Amino acid sequence: MPNTPQRQQMANAIRALAMDAVQAANSGHPGMPMGMADAATALFCDHLKFDASTPDWPDRDRFILSAGHGSMLIYALLHLTGYKDMTIDQLRRFRQLGARTAGHPEYGHANGIETTTGPLGQGIANAVGMAMAERHLAARFGDDLVDHHTYVIAGDGCLMEGVSHEAASMAGHMRLGRLIVLFDDNSISIDGDTSLAVSDDISGRFTAYGWQVLTADGHDMDAVSAAITAAKADDRPSLIRCKTVIGFGAPNKQGTSGVHGAPLGADEIAAARELLDWPHAPFEIPAAITAAWREAGARGHDACSAWQDRHAASPHHAAFDQAMRGEIDKAVGAAVVDWKNTLATAPQKLATRVASQKAIEAILPACPALFGGSADLTGSNNTRVAAHTVFDHSHYAGTYIHYGVREHGMAAAMNGIALHGGLIPYGATFLVFTDYCRPSMRLSALMNQRVIYVMTHDSIGLGEDGPTHQPVEHLAALRAIPNLMVFRPGDAVETAEAWQTALETTNAPSVLALSRQGLAQFRHGDMTDNKTAKGAYIAVDCDAPRQITLLASGSEVAIALDAQSNLAAAGIAAAVVSVPCLDLFAAQSDAYRDAVLGTAPRIIIEAGIRQGWEWLLRDDDHFIGMSSFGASAPIDDLYQHFGITAGAAVEAATGLIENR
Ligand SMILES: Cc1ncc(C[n+]2csc(CCOP(=O)(O)OP(=O)(O)O)c2C)c(N)n1
Ligand SMILES: [Mg+2]
Fold it and tell me: Which of the residues 73, 111, 295, 311 could staple to 33 if both were Cys, CB 3.0 to 4.6 A apart?
């Protein structure tokens, strides 16, 4: 549909809603929605495959507002196209407690919000993951079921962020031709003109990544629409530079950073209404414009019905539905118990990173949704198994991804893979480099996404690589993120159980912090229960009434066990509690926790900082761990040097008992 007066008024409806909602809330960002109203109208009316009455249609195009501060753009679009849950009342309550219209778009608050955005750059990187998921699932289930595009609106800020460089490089390498980014090319950010801070050749940059770069007047809907047509026709990902004026339609403020993030004010809004020929009251949309938008929202209805028919006829439909529901087959639990029974019969001393690889090997046949990879540390992270083939542009059916040295891009893409549905992403690097993933890990947790972070080389135990590579504060920093499960398994059995729990928890991400060094197996006997799922449990009890409780995680469980036998020899009865997941232990009943912890003096041993353990440490209890950076040396020297030894635990225990 051409740039008709009606089309222009459809775009102006977005502008009016944005300026009115921001004015009502007395906060928010009117400039971006007003600047991109025309380009978004072209996308939603001419191209985006969606049906507002079936928001969860699995084969819908995904639309990601990476420039999340422009949230009123997506709220206006969802309302106008007829998403039932995005009522005008929600728009009136923009940014108020309990409204779907949060300051920045939040996944789960309303249909049509495909991901949480606001931290700039995350959305475009999520979109790369969604486009990867689309190609993989199409390879697996066929074009009949999976055949869609991923559209992004990104601003100057998104493209300045480092993560966008990683993500765009990945997308070009993987030739994700169904990824189409509309760049709000307005040369304005908060501090003023972007020339204050950046002079990149953006077209050259994306061309070098292997993208197609197109340019259009962002206020010419026909031109934007034609560019999207050209983007769809090319097998490279496309960046469409939409040349826009920020705050377009606000006569005195447009084109300045003043419209970026502040209400326009009553006078400027009145002047904008005049200029845009929009005489209607705040939040009032003329019937003809509403009708035209509703038509756009129903445009995909027939395509959706046709898809439902194809789905019903597809031999893959049951497997496809199970994947999209994110269900874990019971066979996964059975595979884990089988593997644990093998370990019960023939105990193994394994680095938990290797135990993780063996767990993946055991689980993979029962869990085809697993979509794994590593940021260039495949051999060290032990993330690849024999059954894997590599996902790339010549083989999208592969389930193993070489993310390259792009930890942040990997983590953000994994969020997109999980959000797309149908797959369970896991990705790996060294635990110390969770710092390079952290912004996206926080969003996995905020969005309740099942993303599994396989983080090896989990302490000074990695030895000679030294303090740059030795995590010290990382377990504490990760445990500080709400809704993120941090596992630090102590042997091969706990590692398998951690994998099982991570997979079965559909609404939270997990970190598996794994050792480089071999750890003796301490779990024996009956393997029916998943003890790790309780967070902590008595690993080895004492024969006599308990005098000391030794708590430890990961590689330090072995130290606690050593201390336990030394204490026993000295006539002191100590129990060893293994704590593979503090978060899950905190979630148990008081009765369970009390039974595990007992009342005896406690000694906690973990080769990390004390922070995060305080809630288990009473006044006279003792913590053995790190309080400085590590050092470069062989592992045994390091444990001695930093005093994380069975001897230190015995000494502390003796002292605690004498002082009682
Ligand atoms: C990671 C991150 N850093 C900083 C911010 C704060 N912030 C929000 S918008 C913005 C400027 C964005 O500029 P641009 O993308 O050009 O948006 P426009 O002003 O054109 O709407 C900044 C710095 C943020 N949201 N996320
Ligand atoms: Mg800008």
Answer: 73
106, 134, 166, 407: which one is catalytic? Answer: 407
For 332-343, the pLDDT digits (tens) are 999 999 999 999
Does residue 605's CB lie within 6 angstroms of at least one atom of ligand 1?
Answer: no
Contact 304, 472 (CB under 8 A): no
Q: Is 353 in the pocket of ligand 1 (CB under 6 A)?
A: no
CB-based contacts of 640: which residues, under 8 Å, 6+ apart?
A: none
Please name the residue that has the structure tokens 């309302």: 79
Q: Provide the 8-state DSSP code for 197.
A: T
How many Cβ atoms from other residues are within 10 Å of residue 473's Cβ? 16
Q: Residue ranges of the alpha helices (H) in 375-517? A: 378-381, 407-420, 438-446, 474-479, 492-504
- Please indicate, yes or no, whether the overall pTM of this predicted structure exceeds 0.90: yes
Q: Ligand 2 centroid to 160 CA: how many Å?
A: 10
Cα of 102 from ligand 2 centre, angstroms: 21
Task: Look at residue 1 and tell me whether its pLDDT is greater than 80.
Answer: no
Ligand 1 pocket member 118 (CB < 6 A): yes
DSSP 8-state code for residue 83: -
Does the annotation count 407 as an active-site position?
yes
Atom of ligand 1 nearest to the CA of 118: 25
**Residue 2: is its pLDDT beyond 80?**
no
Question: What value does the mean pLDDT of the chain take?
Answer: 98
**Rounded to whole angstroms, what are the CA distances from 163 to 62, 123, 436?**
20, 10, 10
pLDDT tens for each residue of 174-202:
999 999 999 999 999 999 999 999 999 99
| Nearest residue to 460 via CA among 214, 269, 628, 208 | 628
- What is the token pair recorded at 378? 């495949």
Task: Give me the amino acid identity at 122.
Answer: Q
pLDDT > 70? residue 390: yes
Q: Give pLDDT tens digits for 504-545.
A: 999 999 999 999 999 999 999 999 999 999 999 999 999 999
Q: Is 465 exposed, middle or buried (0-12, 13-18, 19+ CB in 10 A)?
A: middle
Strand-by-strand arrangement of the 602-605 sheet: 537-540, 574-578, 548-552, 602-605, 622-624
Question: Do the bridges between strand 574-578 and strand 537-540 make them parallel or antiparallel, or are there none, so unpaired?
Answer: antiparallel
Q: Which of 19, 126, 152, 189 to mutate to test the pocket of ligand 1 (most atoms within 8 A of CB)?
A: 189
SS3 state of residue 238: strand
Which amino acid makes up residue 554?
G
- β 622-624/602-605 pair status: parallel
Beta bridge partners of 428: 374, 454
Please give the Cα distance from 256 to 254 (Å, whole number): 6
Instruction: Provide the pLDDT for residue 485.
Output: 98
